[in-house]
Amino acid sequence: MPFVDRLPRRVTVVEVGPRDGLQNEAHPVPTDTKVAFIDRLAAVGLPVIEVTSFVSPTAVPQLADAEEVMRRVARRPGTRYLALVPNERGLDRALAAGCDAIALFTAASEAFSQANVRASIDETFQRFQPVVRRARAAGLWIRGYVSTAFHCPYSGPVDPELALSVTERLFALGCHEVALADTIGRATPREVDRLLALATRLFEPSLLALHFHDTAGLALANVMIGLDYGVTVFDASAGGLGGCPFAPGAPGNLATERLLALLDGLGIETGVDREAVATAVAELRRAVPGIGAHAR
Ligand code: COA
Ligand code: ZN
Questions:
Q1: For ligand 1, what atom is nearest to the CA of residue 127?
Q2: What is the rounded CA–CA span in Å between residue 35 and residue 52?
Q3: Which ligand has its closest atom nearest to the C-alpha of 92?
Q4: What is the mean pLDDT of residues 131-145?
């Protein structure tokens, strides 16, 4: 059977540029510009857009306007607008802003968890419990992130068993989808293969998402491995927005345009107009010159 015939026919591209991209950009982006960018990304057919984070504005000043952005984006019917929530305080803010989908984030590495949210992995789950209870009662859709699923910037390679146990706990908690994230863009196709061989035995591939950064130039190769395991949800950032704080000068998130070029080239449907994504990025660059300078 030709290789492409065993890949999924359709893939969901999750656009994380407005959150994961902009949180790592040094250029301040006015709220109006963010809202216009998000509305354009929805209009080009991206089915899921990660809009912002309801985290501490001291931790991530770039997203301090989370409420306003969330309230002002045009809610396109059929588009899912996601926001990151670290704790109950974040959920209160997300609910007040009218969110209907949230993402919780923890890590497969203790060192990264401490650096990112000042809590151990166990403590993040303690924080999540009331969040999930209330979010599910309010009918919210919930994604869980496993950051540093492959490599940690502080403690090095991550044991796949740790990533699997965190994934298992996120599903047990009540997440609808779990995203395995290569936070620093260091995963190799062999490492992705190893983790997915185990993960797809334990979990439905359709409930898993893959979140790659292109720091080492291997993001698309890693996507190919994911497709071969039947994964159908992939994250990407329009214009490759977002550097990697641990790799200055290196490209950040996998660019949505590059992911779409691969998927289009494989004949996999996404419902997204690749040219129109490039136009949305050009509009953003016109409004904020110099943004996304590291992107491939
Ligand atoms: N929204 C806004 N402010 C929040 C908040 C939230 N969800 N959660 C906590 N805060 C505020 C508190 O009110 C407090 O403010 P103050 O200093 O003015 O009193 C301050 O943040 C510290 O609160 P505390 O509960 O002690 O949290 P912490 O310092 O242990 O930080 C997090 C925990 C999770 C809130 C913080 O580390 C964070 O927001 N991290 C985000 C990391 C991130 O987004 N990473 C990228 C995604 S992978
Ligand atoms: Zn990321």
A1: 34
A2: 11
A3: 1
A4: 98
Q: What is the whole-number distance in angstroms between the Cα of residue 279 and the centre of ligand 2?
A: 23
Ordered domains of the chain (ranges, CATH): 3-287 (3.20.20.70)
Confirm if 295 and 257 have CB atoms less than 8 A apart.
no
Q: Is 152 a catalytic residue?
A: no
Report pTM: 0.97
Separation of alpha carbons 200 and 207, rounded Å = 10
Read off the tokens for 157: 């390679």
Nearest ligand 1 atom to the CA of 60 is 44
Greater confidence, 245 or 262? 262
Q: Taking residues 66-93, what's their average pLDDT? A: 98
Q: Which residue's alpha carbon is at the smallest distance from atom 46 of ligand 1? A: 116
Minimal CA–CA distance to 258: which of 292, 284, 208, 209? 292
Cβ atoms within 10 Å of 59's Cβ, excluding its own: 14
Angle subtended at Cα 200 by Cα 14 and Cα 113, rounded to the nearest 5 degrees: 60
Please give the backbone phi and psi of residue 240, each rounded to the nearest 5 degrees, phi first: 65, 30
